[in-house]
């Protein structure tokens, strides 16, 4: 029985691909295997005629990423998670793809990642291996165990949280059952979405206090240990995949975010969507000065031979300081990832679009590190 729709048993990597996934050299990986004592299966175990090359499973790779972290081979970040909202009002621009690939890449670097699907379309949930509306009977028919079933969403958690704040004296129940681990506990965590996520918008209208800051306050309370089952401080990154519509959820995600990533389709007319996002961020900062997320624009569906691309590039010059120096090219490989219930990074570690997401991940980390240095300096100056 499987615990997600992905055919994880069929996915194995040779040394070169495993090293690429972990962003390390093959030699370093060999040394890690020696030092960690981890046993990796050999190809000739199943078929004695094949060469005895090592075959890494997805769980092996995430176990190695975690081992690297435990050995302090991963650059430490701040103790509170860095919250990222992937947002743009338009659909089909690459939000869910970016949230998923980035989440996987950061996990492979040894960071602890929580992805939160805020879209009832559940594209991110599917990319991670789940059919959101699957019932227990359907699971059994598909040879899936109960881990494959979505038993709650961020609406479950926020609904209970808002209720507990309503002054009616209700206590929050443990929410840990909502959180999924599609690639073993060493891999990223996911708060999935299903049809009931729609209830969240409704719940906001009854919320006490500032309705824009519910997620932000929830994380503060979780960090103080007041949200049973959500150990938010264990994570280095929280990544929100926002819906393509104006909603309290997206506004809340932006208000909770340190970074807002706006994927921009280079073969489209998306600059208006971007200016709307900028004014939403500015409006939030005016109303709540502690909200000051940094905007990063990621060009997607990039291609050198479309005339529209060069016009878009010119228009984006107005946002030069927010523009990622790396882009994501158009690739036929992405649309298949959802059918296979597996992010491209894990499907084809050495494919060209994967290395583009890898470069973007490195850029994002350089921004995060720079910001943390700045914060430290400002704190030191203030002291
Ligand atoms: N760089 C790309 N090139 C080609 N297709 C892409 C690319 N990025 C995403 N896609 C595909 O485009 C569709 C929409 O992407 P998605 O990430 O779901 O967008 P959004 O979340 O903004 O609606 C999906 O089928 C996805 O696989
Ligand atoms: Mg989406």
TrEMBL record:
Tell me which domain of life the UniProt entry assigns to the organism this sequence originates from: Bacteria
Tell me, what's a Pfam family for it? AAA_31
Sequence ranges assigned to domain AAA in this UniProt record: 83-287
Put simply, this protein is called Chromosome partitioning protein
